[in-house]
Write a structure and sequence with these properties.
Chain B: It catalyses: RX + glutathione = an S-substituted glutathione + a halide anion + H(+). The complex is a heterodimer of chains A (about 200) and B (about 200). Chain A has about 200 residues and is of the alpha+beta class. Chain A has helices spanning about 20-25, 40-45, 65-75, 85-105, 110-130, 140-155, 170-180, 185-190; strands spanning about 10, 35, 55-60, 60-65. In chain A, α6 crosses α7 (about 170-180). The radius of gyration of chain A is 17 Å and the shape is globular. The two termini of chain A are about 25 Å apart. Chain B has two domains: about 5-75 and about 190-195, Glutaredoxin (3-Layer(aba) Sandwich), CATH 3.40.30; about 80-185, Glutathione S-transferase Yfyf (Class Pi), Chain A, domain 2, CATH 1.20.1050. Chain B has a four-stranded mixed beta sheet, covered by helices on one side. In chain B, α1 (about 15-25) packs parallel to α3 (about 65-75), α6 packs across α7 and α6 (about 145-160) crosses α8 (about 175-185). The chains are: A alpha+beta (about 200), B alpha+beta (about 200). Chains A and B meet through β4, α3, α4 and α5 of A and α3, α4 and α5 of B.
């Protein structure tokens, strides 16, 4: 277990559900300990509220569920929009990615997946074309989530029907990717992260 | 000012969380039952899905978990500190993304029903029962929050959709979850909602 004074994020070495918070922490320039495990040992499982990773430790405070971890960090750093309405429009997008998109490409049915991508990423692309941001008038966790989700599906390859998500089809989301990857913290994280299968 | 509106199909499923919440908080709202998504409503649906919540100020929101948190935030029902709020969020994500999705997959025959006993009950319901025994409230603190309501709805829902799960969960096996159910169902607004909710054609 970490004894560090900086927060720690524990997840498998793969990207998976750990990617959202890792990219977020890197983007916000928050020093953290990136702990990777190859499996959940019995000793580790005993410390996990639902026996699952990722887990985030901030001092004595322990949190699981990747979307919860990301929202907690984002809220602390004013990255959830400017008012209550914006906060929940961000939440709406974060939930859509976690509850609808991620489960679908883990159990893919090609025709359904194609429609799903068009529905969600089409909606995100349209919003970015109209206003430049997914919520409000500045970058929020919603933009970061769409970038990470989009990028991750492409990383997973054809098993996740990645060819559906081309730069040509979604130019504004491709710009979002460029924006985040030009951030110093994110660029450093990407350069140093290991090659993994998932 | 108009009343808030919640639009969803004439089934429990994802609409149940905000419906029970609105009833528990005694918020006067229009409970719109939708037969099918048609051109009258499709433009309001960000991802072509229900439920849809329209607040009294005209603000529209989809995704049942986002809707519930938005309503609860307006009524001081999401915990008092950033940590409590995060623990509420953690519970909601577990209910919505892990438990609810799994229940539906078992209901549709995509997932083996044995996994309810092997994974869902020990990892989630037993854990919640334990937390309630230790702390009285799921997010700690000193009052009920949306986390408690979400777990109650999931606890009631699983036995309704998967009758075999009722035998594994109810009848005193998880006394603190039973007390939670009692708390919410003795609330005047919730009791009235439960009494008046329609028997649905699809058991979902």
């Amino acid at each position: 277990m970490s004894t560090s004074s900086v927060p720690s994020l524990t997840y498998f070495q793969g990207r998976g559900l750990g990617q959202f918070s890792r990219v977020l922490l890197s983007y916000l320039g928050i020093p953290y300990e990136n702990i990777t495990v190859t499996e959940i040992s019995d000793a580790l499982r005993a410390t996990l509220p639902y026996g699952q990773l990722p887990i985030y430790r901030d001092g004595d405070f322990v949190l699981t569920q990747s979307s919860t971890i990301a929202r907690y960090i984002a809220k602390k750093h004013n990255f959830m929009g400017k008012n209550l309405e914006e906060e929940f429009l961000v939440d709406q997008i974060v939930t859509a990615i976690h509850a609808d998109i991620f489960p679908a490409f883990n159990n893919p049915v090609p025709e359904k997946l194609q429609k799903l991508y068009e529905k969600y990423f089409g909606s995100f692309e349209k919003k970015l074309q109209e206003t430049g941001f997914l919520v409000g008038s500045s970058v929020t966790l919603a933009d970061l989530y769409v970038y990470v989700g989009f990028d991750y599906i492409r990383f997973r390859g054809e098993a996740a029907l990645s060819s559906e998500l081309s730069d040509e089809k979604y130019p504004k989301i491709a710009e979002l990717k460029k924006f985040f990857e030009s951030n110093e913290g994110v660029a450093k994280y990407i350069k140093e992260r290991p090659e993994t299968k998932f | 000012m108009t009343k808030p509106q919640l639009s969803y199909f004439k089934v429990r499923a994802l609409g149940q969380f905000p419906r029970v919440l609105l009833s528990y908080l005694s918020i006067d709202y229009d409970n719109n039952y939708i037969d099918k998504i048609d051109e009258n409503i499709i433009d309001d649906l960000k991802y072509g899905q229900l439920p849809l919540y329209t607040d009294s100020n005209g603000f529209k929101l989809v995704q049942s978990m986002a809707i519930s948190k938005y309503i609860a935030s307006q009524h001081d029902f999401v915990g008092k500190t950033p940590e409590e709020k995060a623990l509420v969020d953690e519970t909601l994500a577990a209910v919505n993304i892990d438990v609810f999705t799994f229940i539906i997959r078992v209901f549709r025959g995509v997932e083996e029903k044995e996994k309810i006993q092997e994974i869902i009950i020990p990892r989630f319901f037993a854990k919640w029962n334990q937390i309630l025994g230790e702390k009285k409230y799921l997010a700690g603190g000193n009052s009920y929050t949306l986390a408690d309501l979400y777990v109650y709805v999931a606890y009631e829902y699983i036995g309704y959709v998967l009758p075999f799960a009722a035998d594994l969960l109810y009848n005193g096996k998880f006394p603190h979850l039973d007390s939670l159910k009692e708390h919410f169902e003795s609330n005047k607004g919730v009791a009235e909602y439960l009494k008046n909710r329609p028997i649905t054609e699809r058991k979902i």
